[in-house]
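Format notes (please read before filing issues)

Several people have asked whether sequences and structure tokens are stored in separate files. They are not. Every record keeps both together, in the order shown below: the sequence lines, then the token lines. Line labels are part of the format and must not be stripped during preprocessing.
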Amino acid sequence: MKILKLVIAYSMFLALLGCSPSDAEKAAQNLGFETNGILNKFVGDQFTNPAIGLGTGVITYTSSDLTSATVSSAGTVTILKAGQTTITATITESEKYKSATATYTIDAVKNDQTLSFETNGILNKFVGDQFTNPAIGLGTGVITYTSSDLTSATVSSAGTVTILKAGQTTITATITESEKYKGATATYTIDAVKNDQIVTFDSGIATELMVGDSIQLSATSLGRLPVTFSSADPSIAIVNSATLTANSTGTVTITAEVAENNAFLAGKASIDILVVEKTYTLSGTVYATPGSQVDSDVNHPLADYISNDAFADAQIIYIPTVLNGFASAVGFGDPGARFESSGDLKDIYAAPLIAGQTIILKISDTTADLDLYLYSENDTVNPIKTSLNATDVDSITIDSTGNYYISVVAVNGATNYSLSIGNIVAPPAALLYKLTAESDFVPFEIIAEFNKPISSEPVPALGALSTTEVLPAELTIVSGANGRPFKIALQKKLNPTGSIINSAIHPSATSKNSELADKIETILLLKKVMANENVKSASLNYVSQPMAVSDNPNYVQQWHYQNISTPLAWSSSDGSGVVVAVIDTGVFMNHSDLQCNLTNTGYDFISDINRANDGDGIDNNPDDSGDDLDPTASSYHGTHVAGTIAACNNSEGGLGVAYNASIMPIRVLGIGGGTDYDVIQAIRYAAGLSNDSGAVPAKKADIINMSLGSLNSYNATFQQAIIDVRNVGVIIIASAGNDTTDEFSYPASYDGVVSVSATRQDNTLSYYSNFGSAIDVAAPGGDVTKDQNLDSYPDGVFSTFVSVNDSGTRTSTFAPLQGTSMASPHVAAVAALMKSVAPNMTPLDFDNALIGGKITSDLPPLNGPQVRDSSFGYGLIDAKMAVDYALLINAIDPLPSFIATSTPEMAFLNIQTKKALNIRNGGEESLYVTEVSTDKSWLLVTPSSVDANNLGSYDVEVDRGTMAPGVYTANILVQSDTAPDFSIPVKMIINSVPLNIGNNGFNNIYLYDAITNEWVDGISLNAVNGTYGFSMTGVHFGSYTLKAGSNMDYNNFYCGLGESCGWYPSLMKADIILLDKDLSELNFYTSYDDEYGVFGTAAQRP
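Then the structure lines:
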């Protein structure tokens, strides 16, 4: 301002003088800044300090150090760095003024730095925390971090802090100076403490255990620190490391603890565990017999129910089948029974039936009476066939294919029953003699004899009976006399207006066919007469009509005889003169089909009184008193074995392979089996050698059969006994065992014993049979879980058996069983046939015949009978070949050739389409098969594996195509160059609906204590697709048995007569289940018991 003032004053002075600058020399310039001197500034400042001069000269600016400060053309200065810088302003000369310069000094310093943290002060943290607390400053200085104690906390270059232990730590941030700012530091304090510990038991740890259980304990802690476990009461549960073992019942507290460390305080958690007594779960499936069905209105209130009492409600059934039902003429059953107050008078079924099929009605309770009626689908008034027997069996054979109604009618009492439908063979002979309205007899007449004299006097003489004591009021004596038969007439014949038929039960009472109604009425009266205890005999007055009666009613079920060509052998040998010792459970000595062939030299060698079950030790009574404390649960194994060998050729049951041989029954198996010692004594006795009994039989045995044994039980003493017995000429046969293994079972595997495996109906190895290097020969053992020939019978070996009622009374019966036990007697019996015609045959002769393929037929793989395999040994025993060979043992001339086949006939049932046929030379001379042909287009035979003589295996196939249901027959003709032609009959059945599953109705599945036989647990259910799936939980450690069965009549007793029944694992005999772990797949079958084998049972004993 001073300069400006001078300029102005100077101008005024010149004016006063009256002159101008141009009139004189240019004036000196007076140039200055708005602010002069030394200016104190900060780096980064920007300001304008303009220069002011006189005149019009141009002012410019310069900086003494452009790296320190710059100046613009307007005098604006920007400070770049600290230090002193001179700014110079220069003004050019103008018209009046000279040029000039002026300067000022800038003294620049850096700015003070401001450094702080995002969070300042004292920070409260936990050990283990990690966080970032960055420092914030000015300028571009680099910030670094340090920790006052690196053992307590570390800090990263980004300011991230990790706390390592409890305590106070100072974190310092330092920023370096920059061009604009000075360096600086800042701090904050961390006050760190340890974390609270949290311990948590892992989810899934069981809080309820059973004694003996062990579990792994696991728990988590913060920081994943080690956890230790402890038990508050080691007597209940002890902890070893992390394993807890339950010792006894009770509740125990288990603690999980974590110790204190640098980061966490100590912590713990607890759980309570309840220890209960050890229990397990059993589960499995009970299978119904394939093809079985059940009456839809049985007496059990929980069974599935659909009424089938009327033709409109007829139950549709499928064929073939075994159907079980219940019918009653009166109210029956425990409280709550479906028919407790009124009877179930009839059951009506609808079924498509084929000519040749047989319906067999089997009554379970013989005090009751059921009748069987057959109606066509178009006439439900007049039955086309009836079976009105007073016995426990009725049967009807179908004459023509069609749709029918089957009616089961209750006449008296209440009973379970079975209907077996589907056979295409003739029914057993015992069923051919029956009371039927179709028979040719005189209506209203009966022929009868009485136990005492009959008197018509009001007061008969002493010892005589009045007619009212022996005859119903409807009857009167027409002719006859005491000492000979009486002819008796029904009153209806004398007075045609009366009738005794209950039309509610028998619709035929109103039948338009008066003769049929008369005959039905006659039969109903006859049955009333037969029920009187004073009647010795009573029958219809038949018109001379011969009755076709076969000697052996159940031979048709003995498929196993056909499989080994037994019928072809009988023309040459029946076993006469041969004694076969059956060393087993003994034999039911009063069996009606065995008595004819039992010797009086049998013996009981069970030395242990407790095992014997007959109250004493060794004695001369081989009667089978049972191998179970419960007589109804005994196997009566020896009786069945004996029947296969030599059941009588009479009018009962079946017959034996060597039906005229003698059986020496010897008892060695009792409760829990038998000992080697006792068996050794028995075989020595049978061979006529010294033994503990002090006796020997008058005639020693020629053959010994032992259907018994155990695995891996070699006994050198026993082996020597075998040698001793063979040395006196006794042939020894034994069963290979039912363990499905190649391990050795003894005595079958001893040297000198013929070991027998088991085959099924189709000549394949039975599922249970042992196999391996010890097998010598195969024979039919059966498989009761199958019906391979689809004859509606289970494919067991049918033989003599024992029925026991609730009071323990034994009676003769018959049953199909399975096992190598059943196979062995076939071979023993064939040996008896051979011995009968070759008395000098030795055990070595028998062995050589076996090894040489002289007495066996080959089974697949067809490698020849001389080539043994592990399943069948040297092949399937063949009775015909064996007898023929025995006849030639001492012969010189070779046996003439003849055509022999693996089966004398073939049947294709249901869905079967292909079978194998083996054709061989049955003699020793040459034989060449020239042709194998059939006489029907649906039957085809082609070679499968034949030799140069066209002998060997052929495939036989049937083409069912679109053929209608029915029974078809054909023949296979085998022709050769030297032997007579051979014909094999073939039968094919086409049914409407084949069944692959069954239904045994409402079943109970019960678990029993094996020691006390007390009930433990149970489940009851109806079948689902033929199966009964069960699961029993909470069962304690122990030994148990499983049993399943039905109670159709609801009489508080399941597994009764006519009801399904089965033990695990076999139908016939229970195995003890040791329950020390959960068990699954406890699968077994239930089936029905019947003397005709319809409901066959199984023996699993070897």
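For reference, the curators noted about this record: The longest helix spans residues 820-837. The mean pLDDT is 85.
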